[in-house]
Amino acid sequence: MNNDNKKATLELGTKPVGSLLLQYALPAIIAMTASSLYNIIDRVFIGQVVGAEAISGLAITFPFMNLGAAFGAAVGVGASTSISVKLGQRDYLTAENLLGNTVTLNLIIGIAFSLVCLLFLNPILRFFGASDATLPYARDFMEIILAGNVVSHMYFGMNAVLRAASKPRQAMMATIFTVVMNILLDVVFILWWHWGIRGAALATVLSQSMALCYQMHLFTNKRELLHLKPGIYRLKSALVKNIIAIGVSPFLMNVCACVVVIFVNNQLVRLGGDMAVGGYGIANAVATVFVMFVLGLNQGMQPIAGYNYGAQNMHRVLRVLNLAIVCATCIMVVGWAVAMFLPHTIARLFTTDSRLIDMAVTAIRFVLLVFPVIGFQMVVTNFFQCIGKVRISIFLSLSRQLLILVPLLGLLPLFFQLNGVWYAMPASDAAASVIAFFVMANYIGKLKAQVKERQTTLTH
After folding, report:
1. Contact by Cβ (8 Å): 149, 113
2. Which phi and psi angles does 233 have, rounded to 5°?
3. Cα–Cα distance between 25 and 295 in angstroms, integer?
4. Number of Cβ within a 10 Å radius of residue 296
5. Angle at 227 between CA 293 and CA 231, to 5 degrees
6. Cα(399)–Cα(182) distance, rounded to whole angstroms?
7. Which distant-in-sequence residues (6+ apart) come within 8 Å of 128 by Cβ?
8. What are the DSSP calls for 198-213, one per residue?
9. Are the CB atoms for 203 and 178 separated by under 8 Å?
10. Chain centroid to CA 304: how far?
């Protein structure tokens, strides 16, 4: 076992929490933000080169992408959290077996998801809100994405394990490489070779495939604390149950996001047409940039919170939680300011179509209206996932996306037509943040009591 790797892992319980959060979160934030930026660049290329209807067609694929991400997160996040806790307990053998089981699960789920979705692609896209005009674009994009889905599952899963294995910089480099290659391939496939929306999809799959080769190279190094070797790939029921139990929360978050976007798209098509769907797609792309910032912050918090919770260092758990909440709130305030003051500038990046620009401006302002409180809600939800409190995390995930938003999407358009769809989004975000505040306040009281009890025990 490499002593440097072991030392890096042990630092999770000894190094100042602020320095650790910066060390782990900054690479993840850079990686996640870069990832969201190449999605935006994809849409800019498609909107400017292919046209406004292609942007709307791409927006129809959001539920599909969320659904694919749901299965990937169930394995990747579940495994990385489990590995962090096992490393905190210094159970290195189990952590290594978790790595092998992660590879196997990603292969099985990635291939199965692709086959099922390709068989029923057209009906699924119709259900997601595709019209006669947008269906060809959505289908062209998803055929290639689904063909390479197993690569995407493995790529995201291995990046999560890299962060859990105290290698946030390598995880960041893998993502940045993916982004740079995706942009370069977009230029070749879309601008030079005129492959349109299929070119964008192919660029995504090929760039992730190259990054996966780099990740696998890292995990074949026998000097690493966690490395791939014979005997760790056979699925073990106890490990799989642990991965899935923790991964259920992010899985449901992404499934809920899928369900919500289906509801939104169908309501927008019915009340505002394809341009309304395209406007929402642009707003989603903008919102995703700032959401990715917070997701990167959460990824940085995850190994620190997981390790210290496993080691029963509750004061460090509380410290990293508080720092993450403050940082997330600052990030989302910036997002809100951009949306409120620069919506026209942002919309014009994606299209020259005046109808789509007008719709995108409205969508951007409403989707990001209460972002200053969303950062808190996201961090709190992820915190409960990090420490294995899956039921609480699931409840908070559902409250924002399903329990509140979906009923509002059905109710408010009855009174406000298209505007009712826009009103539903900030209303549900605000309500979910209030719920998260009360749940967190109750649990913080219990954690502080544990810290006090531990200090009393150590004193005596």
Report:
1. yes
2. -90, -20
3. 9
4. 28
5. 130
6. 35
7. 60, 61, 63, 64, 138, 261, 262, 265
8. HHHHHHHHHHHHHHHH
9. no
10. 19
Q: What's the chain's length in residues?
A: 460
Sign of CA dihedral 341, 345, 351, 352: positive
Containing 264, the helix (H) or strand (E) segment is: helix 237-272
- Chunked in runs of 10, what are the mean pLDDT values of the chain (460 residues)? 57 81 83 74 85 87 80 83 82 88 92 94 91 92 93 87 82 87 92 91 94 92 82 90 84 80 90 93 91 88 83 83 94 96 94 92 96 94 83 83 88 95 95 93 80 66
Which residue, 300, 277, 295, 301, is CA-closest to 335? 295
Q: What angle, 0 to 180 degrees and rounded to 10, lies between the N-to-C axes of helices 62-88 and 237-272?
A: 150
CA-nearest of 381, 378, 365 to 425 is 365
The letter for the amino acid at 75 is V
Predicted TM-score (pTM) of this structure? 0.78
Torsion of CA 351, 42, 291, 422, to 10 degrees: 40
The residue among 315, 322, 319, 318 whose CA lies nearest residue 455 is: 315
